[in-house]
Design brief:
The chain has 234 residues and is of the alpha+beta class. The chain has helices at residues 2-27, 37-45, 56-61, 65-72, 75-80, and strands spanning 108-110, 114-124, 126-128, 136-138, 144-155, 160-162, 166-171, 176-180, 193-195, 199-209, 217-223, 226-231. 24% of the residues lie in helices and 31% in strands.
């Protein structure tokens, strides 16, 4: 009896999926097949079994909606709708290209032996230090402000190593901003030696233009020919 119920349930689920696909196809007969993730998602949401949340990514993420949609969908969905992802690298390449950055809070493989994560990011014009000769840093130029990130690195290679990579802030316009060293601050990232499984965490600072918005920024880490792009968009 239990086996029979499973068979009936499976048949019902298959029928529901078929209805969804048929409905979606019907909705796009006039406009053609969806050409990107957003159109695919809206097609499903508009179907009888969807939640009706058409345009949810566009409302929540604005200019970053397409990328957010692509990041959220599982690999099996990406394979099934591969025509909607023709210009996106595989998941193993996430973060290795400016057009497909990793997301805030997402561990990203770097140099095959580091997992790099930007835990958080904030703007400020005043940075307090718990110790040291200089207790407070101010942004002296009214057209500039500090960007502070909390960086975490996990060593996943063999033996031991210290994380050493250059970094800069990359704006969507192509403008870059360099990091600054603020002496005497507690909790800054120190690039200590780590053994397999070890984690180091600390803050890093950059001076950026006052008008820039967080959603338009990403951090670029580089060493030799290897690069990692991590978006600060929330």
């Amino acid at each position: 009896m239990r086996s029979h119920k499973r068979v009936v349930f499976s048949l019902l689920m298959s029928a529901c999926l078929l209805v969804t696909l048929i409905s979606g196809v019907g909705a796009y007969i006039e406009g053609g097949w969806p050409e990107n993730c957003l159109e695919m998602n809206d097609m499903v949401e508009a179907s009888p079994l969807g939640s009706g949340a058409v345009g949810i990514y566009q409302r929540a993420f604005g200019d970053q909606a397409e990328q957010a949609c692509r990041n959220d969908h599982r690999e099996d969905v990406r394979r099934s709708f591969s025509w909607a992802f023709t210009d996106v690298p595989s998941s193993s390449a996430v973060g290795t290209d400016r057009s497909n950055p990793a997301r805030l809070g997402q561990p990203t493989l770097f140099q095959d032996e580091w997992e790099v994560t930007i835990v958080s990011a904030r703007f400020t014009t005043r940075i307090e230090s718990g110790s040291g000769l200089i207790s407070t840093y101010f942004s002296s130029d009214p057209e500039e402000k500090y960007l502070e990130i909390l960086l975490a690195t996990k060593y996943v290679g063999s033996g031991s190593a210290s994380f050493s990579a250059g970094s800069k802030v990359l704006h969507s316009s192509g403008t870059t901003y360099s990091g600054v060293t603020l002496l005497g601050l507690d909790g800054t990232y120190d690039g200590r030696e780590l053994f397999t499984g070890g984690v180091a965490e600390g803050t890093e600072h950059y001076v950026v233009a006052d008008h820039v918005q967080m959603n338009d920024l990403m951090i670029l880490f580089g060493y030799g020919d290897e690069r990692v792009f991590i978006s600060l968009a929330r």
